[in-house]
Structure formats: structure tokens, C-alpha cells
Specification:
Helix content: 40-55%
Structural class: alpha+beta
Number of domains: 2
Mean pLDDT: 92
Distance between the termini: 41 Å
Number of helices: 8
Number of strands: 6
Largest sheet: 6 strands, antiparallel
Length: 204
């Protein structure tokens, strides 16, 4: 019905009435996040985590809100908690997770999802972070990755930055060290913006 403010108030009232109702805080936080009220979303999700500190889904949401607020150092610490929860969880659903969405933003009104790999599909070569933008009417899907591989590790430059636009893949450079997430995020936004500005070879 579009009554987000009323829904948030009801969820927060439910959380106040029942301290065990983690779902109410989760939903209130998601509604805040959808409205780009990231500080309010983080407050709700952190309150929910105080009630259930091993909730894998909540930890992912906290990381997303921290990145949205530019609190990248906090997000890095919370990401380590996420990895530890994934490694030690007895939940089948958590253990089956191959990746986690740890950030979301928009580039030219197109949503970008940032996936952190938890279980590499192939340990010999995989993306650590993948910044994914879906195809639009004017451009193919775009994905910026920071990758690692046996080949790169053997040569002392284990991290490779790449961009893929549709079927067109290009390695852009190598590094001895994993770039800091804020720098990687800035680079990904620039590369996705540039990719969206190119004509679609299929359409043309």
C-alpha cells in the first residue's frame, strides 16, 4: 500500500513488545534501507544482532548498511565475523552459501550488487569480489571482479582486476596485495560507468 512509515512504526513496536522478535527488527531495517535511510537501517539490524549474534543474514545486512554509510573499516571487521560464522555454522542453509551480497548501490540508476565469495567454485581461479550490474535496454551486463588464480599466485601477483561487458572480458592489471575495499568500490563504479557509456555492439 506504500505506507512504509506506518509499517516501520508497527515493526519497531512489535520489536519493543517482544524482545525475541528479531524478524520485526530485520523488516524495519530493510524498509529503512529501501528508503536509503541507512543509519536507521543499521540501528535496527545492530539491535537485532544483539538478540541473535549468530544470525548470518543479519550480519550480511549490517555489512551492507556499513558500506552504504561509508563505514568501510567497520564493514571489514564485520566481514571477518561473517566469514567466521560461515565457517563454523551448523546450519545447512548457511553452509551451502557460496557467496554473500555485502554491498548494493546504483550506477546510472542501474542496481549494482557486490558479491563476496565464501566458497570458491574452483579454488584454482575465482573472484574474491564481483560487482555485478544487470543488462539494460542499451548495454549488456557488466561485472567488475578482483580475481585470484594459481597462475597469478605463482607469479607473485595474486590479484587481478578485470571487467566483463557482455561476452567481452578484459584483464586490467595485477597487484601483489588485495586492494582496500573503498578503492576497489571506487574503481568498480568508474569502470561500470564507462561500460554503460559505450554503445552496445549487438544493438549497433
Amino acid at each position: 500500500m506504500g505506507r512504509d512509515v506506518d509499517a516501520i512504526a508497527a515493526w519497531e513496536a512489535a520489536a519493543a513488545a517482544d524482545p525475541a522478535d528479531v524478524d520485526a527488527l530485520y523488516n524495519a531495517g530493510q524498509a529503512h534501507y529501501n528508503r536509503k535511510a541507512y543509519a536507521d537501517a543499521l540501528r535496527c539490524w545492530q539491535r537485532a544482532l544483539e538478540r541473535d549474534a549468530r544470525d548470518f543474514g543479519l550480519v550480511k545486512k549490517v555489512i551492507q548498511a556499513q558500506h552504504a554509510l561509508g563505514h568501510h573499516d567497520d564493514a571489514a571487521s564485520t566481514t571477518e565475523l561473517l566469514r567466521e560464522l560461515w565457517r563454523t555454522s551448523t546450519s545447512a542453509a548457511v553452509r551451502l552459501a557460496d557467496e554473500a551480497i555485502v554491498d548494493q548501490f546504483e550506477v546510472a540508476d542501474v542496481p549494482v550488487m557486490v558479491a563476496l565469495t565464501l566458497r570458491p567454485p574452483d579454488p584454482r581461479s575465482y573472484a574474491i569480489y564481483a560487482f555485478r550490474a544487470p543488462a539494460t535496454a542499451k548495454t549488456p551486463a557488466v561485472c567488475v571482479r578482483i580475481e585470484t588464480s594459481d597462475y597469478a599466485r605463482e607469479r607473485g601477483v595474486p590479484f587481478v582486476l578485470s571487467v566483463q561487458r557482455g561476452r567481452d572480458y578484459k584483464a586490467l592489471g595485477t597487484s601483489e596485495h588485495l586492494p582496500a575495499y573503498p578503492d576497489l568500490r571506487t574503481t568498480a563504479i568508474r569502470l561500470i560507468t564507462e561500460a554503460f557509456g559505450k554503445p552496445d555492439p549487438v544493438a549497433s
